[in-house]
Amino acid sequence: MIIAVPVEEKNLGSAICISFGRAPYYCLYDTETQQSRFIVNSAADSPGGAGIQAAQNLVDENISTLITFRLGENAAKVLDASEISMHKALNASIADNITALLEGKLNPLDAIHAGFHHGH
Amino acid sequence: MQASIMGTERTIAVLSGKGGTGKTLVSVNLASAASSAAYMDCDVEEPNGQLFFRPAVIDEKVIAVGRPAVDQKLCNGCHICSNACAFNALAVLKDQLLIFEELCHSCGLCIHLCPQRALTEVQKPLGVVRKGSSGTVSFFSAEMHIGESSGVPLIKALMKQKPAGLVVIDCPPGSGCMVTESIAKADFCLLVSEPTIFGAHNLAMVHELANLVGKPCGVLLNKTQEGSNPSEDYARTHNLPIIGSLPYDKDLARMTTEGLIASRESNCYRQVFADLLKEVMDASDPDSKR
Ligand code: SF4
Ligand code: SF4
């Protein structure tokens, strides 16, 4: 399974980005190969609907789990419809978060925030 | 003075940073104080102007926009539409296409591009535009259907009907995109503010918006009383012309809660609003040196 985490920088020691849709990168960790890689979030600068586009990109990467602090409702709709499980991030490094998830220690994401509609 | 404004081409937008500051009261009375004028209610979430003008006959028209609808069976998930949409309103998932209507700008591009012809245009009603008349005032308003997230397309449709002559626009509260749309055709913005610190803060918001879109503006200090007025202080320190003030008066408040138009009910208020209108006309006269 592939786990996605919004991150500030392209290394495993980096902090998790507090924003989902506007994070500069995502860390993708594959539990089978135990490899991680980083992808640029092409939606980060979108004037509107960044969360939707970002979620779309992650769906296209075949992720099955997301670890994040926050998530907008539109992005949540996309991920939910794709049956991606969403977990609340801990205030720790990416590596620690992934370990915690695999040990079943991360709570499901409970708060979804209503998005701003930048387009209008 | 009425003669002086007859035949004048002028569009005055009345704004305030939040609801309840007397924006509708001022708009309704200004329009009624003119020998002839149009009143346009752009407060599409809560159009209250009708409660005052009570036009006998109302011509109502439903306004709709085209939105894509998908036949999931025809969609093969090629991503062409979602990549093309400039507003990120589409997401292609494993077995379905999601359409975020509140982000869709009805450009039609996705429908045009879809190679599978899985997308078709459906007309989605946004709200209604109303037209009527009340004494010397021609009345226009728009009301958004509940559940729509933006009134911008509806306000656009309403403003297409803007007649010639003197027009008073009752804007939505705040300083968002709906307000920006409402003042797009205005020659002048009249900012209505309350004499409180919060009122001054709201005044600053709409003042910034008017400056941002380059509209000349002035403030009407509403509900003034003895003592300090933070909105007045704001205006003086920010080069914002003070067009007039409307002292707090419980008779005016009473008439307003009863849905009466003060400048029609009372000679005194007729004069007050006629004078105010003259001030607004002078301040918004493009030929005058300000
Ligand atoms: S362009 Fe048409 S076929 Fe391709 S993903 Fe969009 S709706 Fe489906
Ligand atoms: S009509 Fe235009 S804005 Fe709406 S979903 Fe299609 S491409 Fe996007």
Q: Could you list some keywords that capture this structure?
A:
heterodimer; A: 120 residues; alpha/beta; Nucleotidyltransferase, domain 5; 24% helix; disordered C terminus; B: 290 residues; Rossmann fold; Alpha-Beta Plaits; 2 domains; 9-stranded mixed sheet; 11 strands; 33% helix; elongated; binds iron/sulfur cluster
Task: Describe the structure in your own words.
The complex is a heterodimer of chains A (120) and B (290). By secondary structure, chain A is α/β, with parallel strands linked by helices. Chain A has one domain (2-113): Nucleotidyltransferase, domain 5 (2-Layer Sandwich), CATH 3.30.420.130. Chain A contains 3 helices and 5 strands; from the N terminus they run βββαβαβα. The radius of gyration of chain A is 13 Å and the shape is globular. Residues 116-120 of chain A have low confidence and may be disordered. Chain B is elongated and about 70 Å long. Chain B has 290 residues and is of the alpha/beta class. Chain B has 2 domains: 10-36 and 165-284, P-loop containing nucleotide triphosphate hydrolases (Rossmann fold); 67-124, Alpha-Beta Plaits (2-Layer Sandwich). In chain B, the strands form 2 sheets. Chain B has a 9-stranded mixed beta sheet, with helices on both faces. In chain B, strands 4-5 form a two-stranded antiparallel ribbon. At the A-B interface, α1 and α2 of A face loops of B. The structure holds iron/sulfur cluster (2 copies). One iron/sulfur cluster is lined by residues 70, 75-81, 92, 97, 114, 116, 118-119 of chain B. Residues 68, 84-85, 87, 89-90, 104-110 of chain B line the site of one iron/sulfur cluster.
